[in-house]
Amino acid sequence: MQERLQKVIARAGLASRRKAEEMILQGRVSVNGSVIVQLGTKVDPENDHVKVDGRLLRQEAFVYYAVYKPQGVLSTASDGSSRPKVTDLVKTTKRVYPAGRLDFDSEGLVILTNDGRLAKNVTESGRVAKVYRVKVTRKPSREKIQRLRQGFRLIDGTRLVPCQIKLLKKRENTWFEIVLKQGKNRQIRRMFEEIGHRVMRLRRVSIGPVSLEGLRPGTSRKLTSREVEILRGQQDR
Q1: Is domain 130-207 given the CATH code 3.30.565.10 in the classification?
Q2: Which CATH code is given to the segment(s) 64-126+209-231?
């Protein structure tokens, strides 16, 4: 998978992305023997030979973590505020980032990695199924839930594709299990707002073959080699 050259240099730990851009503009970077001075250049970090000041770039080893993000934690690697970030929940010297987002008020599974190929597979619509447990106000009618299952267009024009929804508990408020292969911003909350019901609690319980099993809020574990292979698209589930 191709990535921007400055991103590849930064992930190798040689410089920040901004400093890497300066290196490119100064003619200090070559790819497969050709000097590169254009910032839009993309390379395949697994197959292309990237040199900085004549020295071959050594990519950091890829790392992969499953993290149980609690409510009130930002799903980001950097933020201008002092609020806690999901990257604070793992101990690593590598520059990891979340493969996809989970909003501030939600909890559950987030995958942290420095592997661009895996992150792209996880975040691109239609590639990896994500499962959520959702508590909503009151009891939506069957007709309303069927509308969500079939997919529709939100008032802002966002097109929601069909999804799987299963009733789990039907009391004063209702729990559902939802399977999505689409990843729009605050998608589940917006879906239920559209049919007149507010999401009270939202927890992501799995991403493809990776689940929350064995994790408590604020804890993490490394992915298994099989989980990594599946998420990178190298093996069928």
Answers
A1: no
A2: 3.30.70.580
Q: Enter the pTM of the model.
A: 0.78
- Please answer whether residues 206 and 130 qualify as being in contact, where contact means their C-beta atoms are separated by less than 8 angstroms: yes
Which residues are marked as active site? Answer: 103
Torsional sign, CA 144, 149, 153, 155: positive
Q: What is the CATH number of domain 3-56?
A: 3.10.290.10
How many CB atoms are located within 10 Å of the residue 90 CB?
17
Amino acid 92 reads: T
For 66, 127, 208, the CA distances from 223, given in Å and listed in that order, are 6, 18, 12
**32-36 own/partner pairs: CB under 8 Å, 24+ apart:** 36/5
pLDDT digits (tens, 9 = 90+) for 24-79: 999 999 999 999 999 989 998 878 999 999 999 877 788 999 999 999 999 988 77
**Beta pairing partners, 65:** 112, 222
Q: Are 124 and 118 within 8 A, CB to CB?
A: no
Q: Where are the domains of the chain?
A: 3-56, 64-126+209-231, 130-207
The number of C-alpha atoms within 13 Å of 79 and in the hemisphere containing its C-beta is 15
**Total number of residues shown for the chain:** 237
d(Cα 231, Cα 236) in Å, to the nearest integer?
Answer: 9
Distance CA 147, CA 102 (A): 24
Half-sphere exposure of 219 (CA within 13 A, CB side): 8
